[in-house]
Amino acid sequence: MNGFNLSRSICTRQLLQTKRRRKITEFEPRIIVFACNWCTYAAADIAGTSRIQYPHNVRIIRVMCSGMIDPIYVLRAFERGADGVIVAGCNYTDCHYIDGPVKCDVMFEKLGKCIHTLGLEDERLRRELISTSEGTIFAKVIKDMVNQLKKLGPSPFRKKVKS
Amino acid sequence: MAEVRIGVYVCHCGTNIAGTVDVEEVARYAKKLPSVVISRDYMYMCSEPGQALIKNDIKEFSLNRVVVASCSPRMHELTFRAACQDAGLNPYLYEQANIREQCSWVHSDRKQATEKAKDLVRAAVRRVSHHEPLEVKELPVNPNVLVVGGGIAGIQAALDIANGEKKVYLVEKEPSIGGHMIQLDRTFPTLDCSECILTPKMTEVGQHPFIELLAYSEVEEVSGSVGNFKVKVRKKARYVDESKCIGCGVCEQKCPWKVNSEFNAGLAKRKAIYIPFAQAIPNVATIDKEHCVYFKTGKCRACEKFCQANAIDFKQIDQIIEIEVGSIIVATGYDNFDPSIISQYGYGKYDNVLTGLQFERMTCAGGPTSGEVVLKDGRMPDSIAIVHCVGSRDENYHEYCSRVCCMYGLKYAYLIKELINAEVYEMYIDMRCYGEGFEEFYRRVCELGVNFIRGKVAKITDQAITEDEQGKLTILVEDTLLGEMIRVPVDMVILCTALEARSDAEKIAALFTLNQRADGFFLERHVKLDPVATPTDGVFIAGCCEGPKDIPDSVAQASAAAAKALSLISKGKITAESAIAHVNETLCHGCGRCEETCTFHAAKVINKNGVMVSTINESVCKGCGACAVVCPTGAISIKHFTQEEIKSMVDVLAES
Amino acid sequence: MAVNNSVLIIGGGIAGIQSAIDLANMGFQVCLVEKSPSIGGRMAQLDKTFPTNDCAMCILAPKMIEAGRHANIKLLTYSEVLAVDGEVGNFKVSIKKKARSVDEKKCTGCGVCVEKCPWKVNNEFDLNLGQRKAIYFAFPQTVPKLPVIDREHCAYFLKGKCRACEKFCEAGAIKYDQEDEIIEVEAKAIIVAAGFDLYDPTPLREYGYGRIQNVITAMEYERLSSASGPTAGELKRPSDGKIASDIAFIQCVGSRDVRSNRYCSSVCCMYGTKEAILAYEHQPGTKSTIFYIDLRAVGKRFQEYIQRAKDEYNVTYIRSRPGNIELNHHTQNPIIWYEDTTTGETKSLEVELVILCQALIPPRDIQEMASILSIELDEYGFVKTPDGLSHPVDTTRVGILACGCVHSPKDIPDSVVQASAAAARAAEILSGGT
Amino acid sequence: MTLEDIIKETKTYYCLECGKCSSICPISRHNPSYSPRLMLEKALNGFEGDLINDQELFSCLSCYNCLLRCPADVDYPLFMQKVRALASAQGKYGVPAHSGTLQSLMRLMSNPAIEQRRLEWLSDEYRISEKADILFFVGCAPYFESVLDFKTGALDIAKDSLKILNALGIEPMVLADEKCCGHDLLWTGDVKTFRKLAEHNARIIKESGAKKIIFSCPEGYRTFKFDYPHYVDLDCELQHITEFLAENMGKGKLNFKEAKKKVTYQDPCRLGRHLGVYEQPRKLIEAIPGIELTEMEHIRDESICCGTSAWTNCDAYSKQIRTERLLEAKATGAEMLITACPKCQIHFKCAMVSKGEERGPDVEMDVMDIVNLVASALGDNGSE
What we know:
The structure holds four protein chains of four kinds.
Chain A: H1 3-23, E1 31-36, H2 40-49, E2 58-63, H3 71-79, E3 84-89, H4 100-118, E4 125-129, H5 135-152
Helix pairs in contact in A: 2-5
Chain C: E1 2-4, E2 7-10, H1 14-25, E3 30-33, E4 48-49, E5 54-55, H2 56-69, E6 73-76, E7 79-87, E8 90-97, H3 112-116, E9 120-122, E10 131-133, E11 135-136, E12 148-149, H4 155-159, H5 164-168, E13 181-187, E14 189-192, E15 197-198, E16 215-217, H6 218-225, E17 246-253, H7 268-282, E18 287-292, H8 302-312, E19 315-319, E20 324-328, E21 333-340, E22 345-350, E23 353-358, E24 360-361, H9 366-373, E25 400-402, H10 412-430
Parallel strand pairs in C: 1-13, 2-3, 2-14, 3-6, 14-25, 16-23, 17-18, 17-23, 18-19
Antiparallel strand pairs in C: 4-5, 7-8, 8-13, 9-10, 11-12, 15-24, 20-21, 21-22
Helix pairs in contact in C: 1-2, 1-10, 6-7, 7-8
Chain D: H1 3-9, H2 20-24, H3 26-30, H4 36-44, H5 48-53, H6 65-69, H7 76-89, H8 101-109, E1 134-137, H9 141-147, H10 154-167, H11 183-187, H12 191-208, E2 212-215, H13 218-231, E3 237-240, H14 241-249, E4 261-266, H15 270-274, H16 279-287, E5 291-293, H17 316-331, E6 336-339, H18 342-352, E7 366-369, H19 370-377
Helix pairs in contact in D: 1-7, 9-10, 10-19, 14-16, 17-18
């Protein structure tokens, strides 16, 4: 039946990844974090004030509320070669704007589907809820993501990647 | 647009940044970036000389954009914005790159930290060139306040504001203010007579020069927003001229038509023309149109005949009063749960099963039995059962706890012991004596030899199976501490009924754009830190309309609401958030997605000469940006967080 | 120096902060006195708050910052009220501003000094579960962002050597010779928001607090479960650092008890439940048992919260006040002896960690504060309210108001409401009413 | 390509500046400030700057009304396509709808290194072949559902197309690494990416050995037919599914069951004016017993566009165009509006979204693609 096309696409993907893995020796992933001003961005600041070290690969972009994050920002980040994107903000109950995180979830679900259909590894896109005092957690999330991405290898959209 | 001229300032913050980041290098790098005119590094940008540096450069190099690379904007954004403003630059033409908390402090590798710092600066420079000056809008606040609901909460709020010498409109839908509290006999745990505390406050309201009392009135329409609400109030026809009526009550005596008295919870009768209770404010009669025979048959007019003041006016009609206020306090209170739907408790079926309120009236000296605790047949009861959680903590009715029942239940026990020293049984699940002096009161009641049975009552029946159950009401209850079903024969049963949201709460919510919980009570802005504010700016809630609570709590909440209203007034103006949503009308479809998603009811679709377009109420918009995300056409953008601004950062930062 | 402020607020906890902000927004001058180095009070120590489980700091921090920034609010942290003269309309208050040994004008709050300070001491903010330096910030989000030298432990003050902090501070903000300062403040009204202290369960020997390592107090637990706490949010039990997955909470420790305090502390049933839920969230599967007498879930959404704890978070409620806690010497587990009053059986339950829901008690220094302010206290030492019904925030002395837990134990929403009420009342007094 | 070249290629210099184009342009009707004629005039007078900086540049729907009426045979749509390329080369774009998410997805898709998962909707009830002469081009359907906030029905069109083809005993090829045809990018000026997509599609289709490509989306059809030839060489027979069905329906394989419905039909610009397919869809609709086709006022080459194109400048005027068209459709008394283009369907459905309290005219109406209509009417032996 239709098995053919699918299976082919799958094995080529695996092939491609293994190729990628071989090519890259310890590459440095680039991560974009969209962080809401009131919780996650503050958490990142706390990580700083408490001098909690985490990999340099991350670049944080401040938005007022996670409900403000438009899918285009994330797609754009991938277009420009980001290896991973984290959409982060308050917990559901801490939101400065009452229910931003819920709205963010709605956006994120659709976005996730796009990324999936595009054939990007789902792990490259993350949704995190990090509260003000959770500097440690922020650092931990970044570490995880970096390790995960190092395993995955660079995003196919990186300018560097030849095809 | 004029040529963009950016100044970049990189802060050493002592060694905090310079220790890990090569700030000179970053500054040199910044200088090369497009439209950067001047780029410096300095020991402490936030220090006076540091700020002076910026101010001078703005003038000297006629900069129109400023970027400071230093600590977190959460720390010093305001500082530097102010600096820009001092130098005559719109504060929104400033951008801060966080190279301390999010760079130098979290990375140790100098090279990489420096690279990251460069990226962050480049991104900031790119972003700031898209910045637009924003004006800081200020709207005036109308100093008048509307208080809806004339119960203890409404009264307290009104008085607090009026004593601050601000005009208050107090709207009460009943003929008199006083609410539920005026019906109560005594208050726990102190057992003060509730009338004695409330009446002075009521009189004060009645006479206060700053309070305009609109009794027997209902709010019909609310428009506008914080600072400037327009409210339509319907003043219902009393068929009595308030200005003439002297409250002598002759009409009441002469009126031949009897009706159940709401005030006495049906334990007594009132007339078709009536003054609800002796201390009523305003003290004027009201004709109950439904029951007045004149309105039914066109005959009688007894009241008119006997009224010397000839205040009776059968032709009176409802008036619509329009008022303008700056803030609104909603204190619409609660309804009492009607226990007759719990058939197994037999309320309405057995004469001697009473609600708490009815018992209140009974023990009240001024009440229908003038303070006598008596059975229907006039006998004095030997034993009384007090059943807790009637309609509360029960999936079938209300899951929540009504907070006050335990205490008033104990109060009844105390009063019964005091008045007739009958046998008392308290049937409870938990004794919730949480408040100041409550536990002590509980102990006092225990000392009186009241029987406490921990268990939920299953059934109340008059079917006797033993001698001593004859002619009594028998209560079937499982004593969970004995672990067995027991039968308790008593003469009288008092049901501690739940407090529930007003039956018309939904209507009120729609009127003032409040949100409701599943159980109908109104939602506050934040449970913890904004308990009296609501998502609608300028509308506050107080008392039991927010959830069941006792008198001190209601009073405190009322004062809190008053404080919020007062501080709004004394500010005199609202500085509207500048970084808010903006609608491009040529792009807007008027599809209303924004209206649907906006939590603050700021976005609204209007019909602009035939075309549907969305509009943003700038005094209400918080700039959370949700509307821009759902807008399909790109008509809505968020000032200072436009797609260009954010995408420009993404473009820089995503590349590696 | 003399500052003329219309209202003096004693205590920089959530209640004090709220009153201050409300009054300041009404355009009054406010002087907020806090005895510890930072405002924030007890709430800053909490991890999450019931019944919404939102993080205490997330909602507190913005208010602290607002209070710190507000033009009409003067913060006097690390300061204590010495004397109050005069009466309503013109109180004269003298305040001791303790020496931080740090120059407030110069310090940029960068924290290098803290980093470099070689001396570690127990951190009282973490109830001594963790450590801090001899020069320290009370906690990461402090307002004002100023460190303070703890002279009892600073090597320089003890031995005259070290000066590390001074060396590394570019701002040159360290001032060892700084002295306590007496500030005279004039106030038209005073609001007491001194908060509460926590009952020390040691006297209740049957619970073995202090004797059995794995019996801890609720506040200790709060610090353990807090992400910024000493264990970075891991519920490591004291004896062996093992993560406890079977926990018991004991209610009414020091409340509703003639041997200690008769009154009910209002919040324990709920915070106990909250902590049980948090334990489960930290480590799904965690089993919690709560021993109670009456479940006082009287607030908005509280009953539903209890229900959720039962249904979703593996929390069991047993109606009983345990009689004794013994120690299993092999496992270090506490063994709780109790009677299940609903079945009448006496049983024992071995758990990995016991949390004592300790009572809220009046501040330990309330007596002297009361004599300074010459206000009356009730039998327990809480501030007395002559007319609780119509003036719930008044004290026995005109012009002095009280709000928050210094009145009687209460939860955060109630404290906040009362704080605003106190502000309104103060405003009333200031504008001539009584 | 310079403005000069464009003028030559589109024969703009023939322009009589008679304004006929503007007078029948659906946009101009609602937005007086927009005039195709002026655009051309600007070009002819060499005001390149004005032309490129004009927001309205991206408003053209390329609906072909002007082209069909132009007495001088100036190819205004093509002119627009080319000038937009010129503009975007200088970083000038229109206002993308849905924040440009779709364009972004297309650009991402164009990356050779990715392996899409675009066939996950393809369940076993549909029969496709590994090798066959006929190839069914799915298009962007798999993406629409996850971008737009309402049920677009685009995937159902793909599914039902297969269902019908299967019913005719045809088991077409479907390519797992097919990519967007590039239509929307081409029409918003991103020629670079368009070329990448075109080359990719051409390559894999060659590899597949397909002789005939069937489209359910007229945009894809048009793009392959008119635009691809300028960039890639691919010689395959191309057909819109309506054409194909109209042809093969007669072969008796399609048995319809009675379906009582009153419908009206929207000629998509691309299928109609661009490609001249007017009759086949109508033939199909009428072939279904019980279906009554009542035509709208403007049909065939006079049909009115669904109001927007290429996910750009989807403004209030575009909404007005849609609203008018929908009212026209309702006026026929039909219960359902049949289209033959997924985009038409999406745009009409979007125009019906009305979530505010204050609402415009009621344009609520069932919309369905002709493919769905046919599939739903298939008798049992149809779907074997």
